[in-house]
TrEMBL record:
The keyword Ligase applies. Keywords: ATP-binding, Ligase, Nucleotide-binding. This is ATPase. Gene3D superfamilies: 3.40.50.20, ATP-grasp fold, B domain (3.30.470.20).
Amino acid sequence: MSNKRPLNFLCVTTYHKGADFIKSCKAEGNNVYLLTKKKLEHEVWPWEAIDDVFYVDNWNQNDVTKGIAYKFRTIKFDRFVALDDFDVEKVALLREHFRMPGMGRTTSHYFRDKLAMRTKAQVEGINVPEFTALFHDVDINAYADRVSPPWLLKPRLEASATGIRKINSREELWQIIDVLKDERDNYLIEKFAPGDVYHVDSLIVDSKVVFARASKYLDTPFEVAHGGGVFRSATCEIGSKIDKALTKMNAEVMKAFGMQLGASHTEFIASKETGELFFLETSSRVGGANLAEMVEFASGINLWGEWARIESATLRKETYTLPKVKNQHAGIVVSLSKFENPDTSSFNDPEIVWKMDKKWHIGMIVVSDSSDRVMELLDNYTQRIASDFHASIPAPDKSL
């Protein structure tokens, strides 16, 4: 690494995440600068891998741009990287202002704006649930005539299940639209169809998916957020029909949306009625909720770390080589706990490779060569957690 000119990476995140990206980026011989919120200065960042840190109290795009321009006088930044969903568009604007390589504003919309995602996917011939924007009254009524409820109201720019609401009738829909008032253009509605929800976590190099791992939410983020359930996910059986179908559809989405390099987390639903796969949403970052850890224990691939290696290799015009991939199966179970520091000593199966260390939470990841064994353990743990540890709080409702 010593013979390489250090590249200057500015990592931007308004949440505490991306430690493995920062450490891997530094290990590649680069200088790493962190731009984050002042309130996060006491979080456990990998300070040994950070050359300098810049803080903002409240994000003002113009002020941040001017601040980076001032730093640019003495630091020649080579790459801006957004480590969280909510920073993708902000960083895209910074790239355009400083003519920095990477995803610009138009492409970034496909990985942030749910309406842009669905519109682009539909144009590219990718299955999406029937949807409509809330721009035009006639279009909304025509949609309600054509597509029977229930529908899901979704904020265009929120992450995960935040702000999603189920609607059961035209009357209820218009009541909600009336409450939204001038914010209605920031929402869409789509057909709610029961089915299994999957996620594909992948790495992309030179516009090609070089690694993908398909998994199934056993309890979806929406169900957990709105029903107070226990969050669970498990990798799909390697080489199964659904594994192959999801991997193929994920590659189609990445190509359609113009993803050139980096990490992505993409969600799909398989219709309970027909089995048909539909694209739900995607993001140009590593999946949250400790899914990256689950993927790493199953495959040996650290998504954050490899993303940093991809960025570095691309800038240096070097060939990126994916580490050897393991093909084991893994599953995760996570819940709020009624205990501040839950005693998990009774969970002692040899397949347990990770336990959550977070106050008021309980969680585990298990790994096995057998997907059936993973499911057996997750079912057992879910029952025990629900009985002895589980707590829930109401989901935040940002829609109304």
